[in-house]
Design the sequence.
């Protein structure tokens, strides 16, 4: 995913005024939020529910403003905004409101004979004051979905939206100011200076969505205060395509995950395809046919494709295409309009693995296809690089599916589709290795912002002398038996039997 720290955009007078937000202002903000948290108001079920309902109402009331803001920032088609941001936020609120009482209820757990008589439970308690730094590509979803988890868990929150989506950032600041409890939930707009000021503070958790380069900055800042982090990053998510499949359906689902998601500007979009040399021509033809069906003969004119977010990212993607190793590998697309920041869906075949386009996350509408002799070789190709955020395979071969699940380490896997695991709230969403640390969605969001506190209850009965001096051989035998947990061993120890 992209980052909040990777560009300096032209600022408005309002943003100029916000540059006054420095380390001192950040420190004062955190102090006020700690005072609010210390008052206990966020710990109650009632406050959490009221804020979740307010957030749900915000999304309901302001749907058109949200659509318009995303249209301004990235020319995102309204359907994509409604389906992938608004609907998913509503669902997250609905799940949290439905399950919150259950999530908050202490979990009873078994105890051992060593602590008999006793009972135990795990209590979920809020961490305190948390910082959420979000990304520009799905600015409402990736900002407010973590906020839902933080509120559900009972924390006070600072949200730092991405300045690369200025219309959405501004709208979010206004709406959260209007709808939410501002003594506990705050938005800080700005760019590098503001984010740096926030990162200097001590937080109880930092949740960052973006890229690996900035994640290292966030993690280094967090380490100074031993602050735990959740890092939602990205990587090169592969799609393996077998030959024994419904190629039309598979192709449409790849397109849906690639170009129907922000024109490829999504962390879980297929980053490249691996298929066999024999099957590659059929796959390319299918992609051409379906892409033309979806976006017409001149996709740069299509209103169903998002634009590239800004000139920096346009130049970055152009550089990938202009690389000598891949410029002759384009088999479909490649058209660009810099004045409109538009790049058409582009398919490249037999791209060298040492090319620039294969060395970094593409995060755009370019889709390279690598070819292998046998599909099983694709697993070695994937595992030779950093672990991706997502990995996809299209096959009807049961053994291949099992091998894929057992062999490929990624944040999440989908068999015979792309990106849909994001919508399943009972699945954790997050990366592994360089694609991220920690996970969220549904109860996993609640857990991400909670501390699991161990609680053991005992009465004054059953006070075993074995714990206390003087230590004897008999006590040692009994203590070993108690730790071992076997009834027969305890009986033997009591009676001194070997």
Sequence:
């Amino acid at each position: 995913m992209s980052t909040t720290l990777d560009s300096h955009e032209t600022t408005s007078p309002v943003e100029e005024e916000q540059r006054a937000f420095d380390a001192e202002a950040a420190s004062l903000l955190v102090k006020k939020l700690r005072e609010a948290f210390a008052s206990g108001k966020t710990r109650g079920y009632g406050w959490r529910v009221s804020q979740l309902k307010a957030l749900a109402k915000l999304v309901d009331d302001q749907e058109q403003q949200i659509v318009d803001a995303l249209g301004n920032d990235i020319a995102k088609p309204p359907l994509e905004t409604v389906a992938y941001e608004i609907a998913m936020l509503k669902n997250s609120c609905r799940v949290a409101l439905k399950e919150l009482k259950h999530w908050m209820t202490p979990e009873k757990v078994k105890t051992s004979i060593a602590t008999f008589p006793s009972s135990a439970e795990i209590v979920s308690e809020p961490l305190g004051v948390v910082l959420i730094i979000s990304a520009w590509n799905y600015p409402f979803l990736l900002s407010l979905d973590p906020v839902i988890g933080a509120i559900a868990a009972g924390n006070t929150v600072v949200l730092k939206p991405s300045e690369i989506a200025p219309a959405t950032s501004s709208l979010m600041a206004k709406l959260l100011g209007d709808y939410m409890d501002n003594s506990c939930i705050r938005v800080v707009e700005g760019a590098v200076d503001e984010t740096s000021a926030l990162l200097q503070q001590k937080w109880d958790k930092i949740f960052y969505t973006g890229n690996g380069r900035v994640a290292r900055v966030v993690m280094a800042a967090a380490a100074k205060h031993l602050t735990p982090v959740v890092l939602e990053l990205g990587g090169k998510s592969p799609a393996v395509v077998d030959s024994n499949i419904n190629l039309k359906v598979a192709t449409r689902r790849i397109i849906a995950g690639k170009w129907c998601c922000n024109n490829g500007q999504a962390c879980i979009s297929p980053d490249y395809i691996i298929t066999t040399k024999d099957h590659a021509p059929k796959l390319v033809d299918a992609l051409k046919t379906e892409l033309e069906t979806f976006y017409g003969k001149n996709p740069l004119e299509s209103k169903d494709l998002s634009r590239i977010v800004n000139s920096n990212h346009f130049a970055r993607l152009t550089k990938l295409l202009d690389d000598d190793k891949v410029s002759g590998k384009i088999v479909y697309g490649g058209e660009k309009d810099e004045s409109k920041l538009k790049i058409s869906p582009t398919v490249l075949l037999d791209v060298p693995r040492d090319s620039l386009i294969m060395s970094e996350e593409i995060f755009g509408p370019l889709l390279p296809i690598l070819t292998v002799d046998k599909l099983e070789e694709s697993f070695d190709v994937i595992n030779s690089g950093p672990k991706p955020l997502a990995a996809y395979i299209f096959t009807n071969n049961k053994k291949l599916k099992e091998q894929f699940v057992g062999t490929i380490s990624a944040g999440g896997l989908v068999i015979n589709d792309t990106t849909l695991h994001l919508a399943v709230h009972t699945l954790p969403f997050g990366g592994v290795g360089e694609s991220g640390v920690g996970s969220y969605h549904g109860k996993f969001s609640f857990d991400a912002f909670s501390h699991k506190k161990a609680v053991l209850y005992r009465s004054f009965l059953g006070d075993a002398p074995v714990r206390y001096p003087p230590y004897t051989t008999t006590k040692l035998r009994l203590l070993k038996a108690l730790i071992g947990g076997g009834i027969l061993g305890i009986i033997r120890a009591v009676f001194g039997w070997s």
